[in-house]
Amino acid sequence: MSLDAATIRRIARLARLGIEETDIARLQGELGHIIGWIEQLSELDVDGLEPISGVGQAALRMRADAVTDGDKVEAVLSNAPSRAGSFYSVPKVVE
Amino acid sequence: MAGMVELTGQTLAAALSGLEQGAFSSVELTQAHLTAIEQLNPRLNAFITVTGEQALESARASDASRARGDAGPLSGVPVAIKDLFCTEGVRTTAASRILKNFVPPYESTVTAQMKRDGAVFLGKTNLDEFAMGSSNMTSAFGAVENPWKRTGDETALVPGGSSGGSASAVAARLALGATGTDTGGSIRQPAAFCGIVGIKPTYGRCSRWGTVAFASSLDQAGPMARTVEDCAILLRSMAGFDVKDSTSVDRPVPDYRAAIGRSLKGMRIGIPAEYRAPGMSQEIEALWQQGIAWLRDAGCEIVDVSLPHTRYGLATYYIVAPAECSSNLARYDGVRFGERVEADSLDMLYERSRAAGFGDEVKRRILIGTYVLSSGYYDAYYLKAQKVRGLLLRDFTEAFTRVDALLTPTAPSAAFALGEKMNDPVTMYLNDIFTVPASMAGVPGLSVPVGLDAKGLPLGLQLLGRPFDEELLFALGSALEKAAAFTHLPAVRAGVGS
Amino acid sequence: MSYLIEGNTGPWELVVGLEVHAQVVSHAKLFSGASATYGGEPNTHVSLVDAAFPGMLPVINEVCVAQAVRTGLGLKAHVNLVSTFDRKNYFYADLPAGYQISQFSHPIVGAGTIEIELTDGSRRTIGVTRLHLEQDAGKSLHDQDPSRSYIDLNRAGVALMEIVSEPDMRSPEEAGAYVRKLRTILRYLGTCDGNMEEGSLRADVNVSVRKAGEPFRTRCEIKNVNSIRFVTQAVEVEARRQIAVWESGGVVDQETRLFDPHRGETRSMRSKEDAHDYRYFPDPDLLPLVLDEAWVAALKADLPELPDAKRARFVRDYGIPDYDASVLVAEQATAAFYETVAKGRDARLAANWVIGDLFAALNRTGRTIADSPVTAGNLGEMLDLMLDGTINGRIAKDVFETMVQTGEAAGSIVERQGLRQVVDTGAIDAAIETVLDANADKLAEFRSGKDKLFVFFVGQTMKAMKGKGNPALVNERLRQRLLAD
Q1: Is B186 known to be catalytic?
Q2: Is the model's pLDDT at B454 over the cut of 60?
Q3: Is the whole-model pTM more than 0.90?
Q4: Which CATH architecture does the domain made up of C425-484 adopt?
Q5: Are C270 and C252 spatial neighbours (Cβ–Cβ below 8 Å)?
């Protein structure tokens, strides 16, 4: 199985992963192979089964509505590759 | 005062007794390990970051508190931390270029609890990038070498993955124990490859807070050490309820060490037929039979069971884990932390930063995960995988109505050479065939080294238990350990092979 | 009366549905302990969870859940005892994790209704499809630097309720009335402050047009409309735009548009579409949200009286017209003010004073009911003075005006200014004699049969008494005096 080049470009774009045109053929093969291998699940009839997304306990715990965090601008910004005062800074986003 | 080899060669339990009896200090013990790291790490590449100064400082503090009669359960014990646990003020990379300079302003719950109990951190161990891999070859900080060698063959072997640095460090006596994380086998498989013990606890037993996420519904921290007892000691500190992790389970942490040596009479041990992989070596089959015999000798009743959906575990895992990872890794975008490649537009900044920051395997998984969640494919892949996950869970639930634990091989082969199995991702994925189902079901799994293959490489057996029955796994694992009397040493270890 | 827009090809009907984002009133954020308060220095109301640092995990805020449930109950909606959180994946500067935690497949609240009131006095019931909880995004500032955007995450992770209506509205007015009524209900419940200027309430407006009897045509979504007036304007201009497209033989594309109030037009945000594929999936960091039935019942028992119920009660208990009741219940503070005034008094008179004189005074002075210079107690006291005859209606207007200016109590104004109504017949008779003496010519005309001049003498007498005469007594004494001859 092979994924077409348009699909590779589309998912790379969705994932914001820059890929070179020269990588596309390789990725088509690699990803197509993995997806083809995953296809073995199609042997299984799962109609009517409940999907499960985790295996933890049944219900979410809730926390109290109290302000217990924040006011740590330096911690929040200390690893930022680019900042302007107390803001993160990115190339201008055109709305 | 004992020499370096004596200090690094002992078990964690023995080191605790020695510290308690004043046979040596934590500073001496820590220095011995730092010396061993200095000698062997350039070769093994087990550590990404060594924090010698901090280690000696906490060793001194530990000696002082022990002198005051104020020693914690891990006081003075030098251990290694997988570089996936965020450590406050200490660079945490997840073995990725994108985090190569990330210094967390916070400490993960697991490592904070170990610190609370007095552990001394030697440094941060290497791993597959973002814990994605089974060989430690995807690390942006270079491959890790397995300290074991095939007899008469110097070929460098992989330590397994993703917790390969931890496994290699513990096996080579560079640390008395280490933390690992296991998403599909990342503690158990490298433990088996390196001839040490590792346990993936029940999902929810150890807090995930502050540990870099790979696949949130599967990730679970656990200890790696040279004996079952050492793992039991470490897990008691690592485990526990954490309000900051919504999937953490609120139940008391037992004294796991106390479970070791308890009677196994009448315990029912299941042998799942489906764990006979096609092409699995005769040696592994033989060792499995040996393990069965040992448990029978210990008073266990052996029961044949079936986990019929086992063969679908891997394919299911390779939908669920990449799907979650594609979302979990979206935060590495070069804006708030991590490496950035500047660009004129924000989208180009994202694309370039992520292209430069992630390695090939991580990119593959992000792309696979994006694909299986994308419009038009969700039902066919992701939803289907969630349903099959239900079947995998049911397999275990039903088996555990008949038996108390399961015994299987840990991995389908012994350690392979660096560079092998690299041309085909799927061949690499097959390494996790025996470890993935338990991850999908969230049940605990322990790997114990029980023998060597014909080439002199260690092989492990895996014990799987009911949720939160880690105690039984420690008891069974200890029985196997005792029967196997695994005393073989790796070719490369502190004092030897530098 | 149905609202139709006349096109070149005949009348068109509008179809409008609304997605309203309402910021939940809470101290802390939905999944972190950082403050949810509006404003603050940049990145101060931010935890490492909000900034999506590696290994940070969400833990849900109980009050945010309770607020969503209370809102659901207020919309007479079905509360789902089991709901789940999903991740909506997309990259954006102010979305730190690269996904928004939302509820896609299993929302906390299901179908409900909102009754809207229209200016012609009619009412319509609009269906609410669902309400779900989700995280707000941060804020990008584009005007601080010529080439950079600055990111402030203070709002990132604040709890929002997204309330989705059925496509039940058929006119701009109905769309506006829906938002107004929803805002009223939210404010009654205290679950959202409804402040559209600060963005705590904003609407995405879905508009399509069709010919009578047709199925729905393609709709467009107008994003982030931030006032009720703009909602009605946006619906109208978008409908007219679509009619023009259809009538010129074109096809309306399903797309996201922005309303520009200055130009009075909507325009495409097509650049932002960029093949969105949100890849929703259940958030593995969060378990299903399972609500205890008794907990929901307790929230229900604690709900305040809501505007519809209050209006019905006002009509029933106070005997005021339905329209007046609607006006009085539009804001909880007004309703409470009115009840304080009306209780134990002439409730219709109270309604007239609140809706008439008080509202006019507030308008004029730019005040709200909350900081009204005339307290409910003071207005009530003034009505008491009217009813017990201490002052007459004419004087009451002056007293009220003084109350507006000074905030003084009615009784003290009456005493200080000597406005007490005169019931002493001797004083009235004396005033009558003065008036008759001064108007001998008019008296002669009256006597010769010009009966209408009686009113003239009443007015003159009141004037002579500086308006303080009891009108009934003045009439009675004057009549006796003139007819006695």
Answers
A1: yes
A2: yes
A3: yes
A4: Orthogonal Bundle (1.10)
A5: no
